[in-house]
Amino acid sequence: MTDRRPRLHQIDAFRTVLQVRSVTEAARLLRVSQPAVSKSLRQLEEILGCTLFARVGGRLLPTPEAAALMPAMEAVLASLTALTAAGRAVREGAGGQVAMVAIPSLATAVLPAAIEAATRRHARLRVATQITSTRQAVDAVARGVVDIGLVHDILDDPSVLAEDLGQAAMACAVPAGHRLAGRRKVRARDLRGLPFASYAVNSPIGERLRTAFEAEGEAFTPAFELGASTVICEVALTAGVPAVVEDYIPALGRWPGLRAVALEPAISLRLRLLTTLQRPVPMAAKVLGEECRRVVEERFR
């Protein structure tokens, strides 16, 4: 009987082409030939029974089927990352391996300082991190693929223990010189008709923003829908447009040309540390979790 399960090289080819939208560039990054990437994609399409990419106007775009398959693909890669890291730790005799997952904004604002502090306490600490969406993060923790997770308000899952670390809120980051820059508060109606950057409307935060804006009789219609807070701020600063983003991101000081202004309606965020209930949390993961907690206490309260 022929084994019809996807191979790792096929998944790697799919994910890389999805990121760079080019078979040629994907081949360069993967250090294989262009025909090899094309063959991997064809094989994966045959196994899955659907087309993954289509050329539209000269551009290589993922099909809706490809988008629907991405969470499962990411879960496979996260499992392989954790397995590889665990094997390396065993081989090197290091007992400090942590597999974790985080959303982009908290990975930026919390994780670097937490890792630095944790490595001072646990000299042989090794951290394998997946940066992904809230939904995928909760799923990875629930299934025990990773030890800990950092997210905002989570979807209920009985196999995940969620600890509140602190509170944050959405804000409007306004470039200097913009007509909203002098406001003490930016209301939903102030953004009507203005191009602004924020999260995709169908993302977890985007859905909350849309609901809050609609309650004010306004539509949440960002001109630039982006997947990471750092990119949102970069686009806001470069394009000279407001951005609706977590208030702690402009506070990092990396975009001195942006000023965080309170957003109305107020949208609060709970910062959560997730641990799996499927197995005991390793000591190294507990140490990293403690440092994540400390960073949040120092920066968000």
CATH 2nd-level architecture of the largest domain: 3-Layer(aba) Sandwich
Approximate shape: globular
Number of domains: 2
Low-confidence stretches: none
Helix content: 40-55%
Whole-number average pLDDT?
87
> For the terminal residues, how far apart are their CA atoms?
60 Å
Can you put this structure into words, describing what you see?
- The structure is a single chain.
- With about 300 residues, this protein is α/β, with parallel strands linked by helices.
- The chain has two domains: about 10-60, Arc Repressor Mutant, subunit A; about 95-300, D-Maltodextrin-Binding Protein, domain 2.
- About 45% of the residues lie in helices and about 25% in strands.
- It is built from ten helices and twelve strands.
- The chain has helices at about 10-20, 25-30, 35-50, 65-90, 105-110, 110-120, 135-140, 205-215, 230-240, 285-300; strands at about 55, 60, 95-100, 125-130, 150, 160-175, 185, 195-200, 225, 245, 260-265, 270-275.
- Strands 3, 4, 5, 6, 7, 10, 11 and 12 form an eight-stranded mixed sheet that branches.
- Helix 1 (about 10-20) crosses helix 2, helix 2 crosses helix 3 (about 35-50) and helix 6 (about 110-120) crosses helix 10 (about 285-300).
- The longest helix is centred in the first third of the chain and has 29 residues, at about 65-90.
- The protein is globular.
- The termini are far apart.
- The mean pLDDT is about 85.
Summarize the structure.
Helix content is 44%, strand content 24%. It contains ten helices and twelve strands.
Please supply descriptive tags for the structure shown above.
alpha/beta, Arc Repressor Mutant, subunit A, D-Maltodextrin-Binding Protein, domain 2, 2 domains, eight-stranded mixed sheet, two-stranded antiparallel ribbon, 44% helix, globular
